[in-house]
Amino acid sequence: MARSSACRTDRRPKLVVAEVLPGRRTPERERAHLLMLKVADVAAVVAAAVARGAHLVDESHDWEYGERQAAIDDPFGHQRVLNQTLTDVEPEQWSGTTVTPRSPSR
After folding, report:
1. Burial tier of 70 (Cβ tally within 10 Å: 0-12, 13-18, 19+)
2. Strand partners, 37
3. What is d(CA 62, CA 84) in angstroms, rounded to the nearest whole number?
4. 3 and 65 Cβ atoms separated by less than 8 Å
5. What is the pLDDT of residue 1?
6. What is d(CA 106, CA 88) in angstroms, rounded to the nearest whole number?
7. What tens digit of pLDDT does each residue of 31-89 get?
8. Cα 72 to the chain's mean position, in Å?
9. Cβ-count burial 37-61 (b if 16+ within 10 Å, e if not)
10. Is the pTM of this model over 0.90?
């Protein structure tokens, strides 16, 4: 997994779009997509979502690359992976590779 250094300092909410990689689930027959959302506090978002009818799919887990993630299904069946940055970890510390972001296509 590669990580751009440009993502490290920007704390605004983000929608993460990525290809299916080893270890990630693909959408199921009943599900056309999965959204990964960057949030400030995974536990707070999970608690608020569950209180409003979401189902906890994957409990919160801290990853070696400095992220905390949990997955929920909303009442309509849409799955969200919630992602919180805990600490800045250089990709090389977890067998990743630092990359330079590509320029947008014109």
Report:
1. buried
2. 15, 82
3. 9
4. yes
5. 44
6. 31
7. 666 788 999 999 999 999 999 999 999 999 999 889 999 999 888 778 889 999 999 88
8. 12
9. ebbeebeebbeebeeeebeeeeeee
10. no
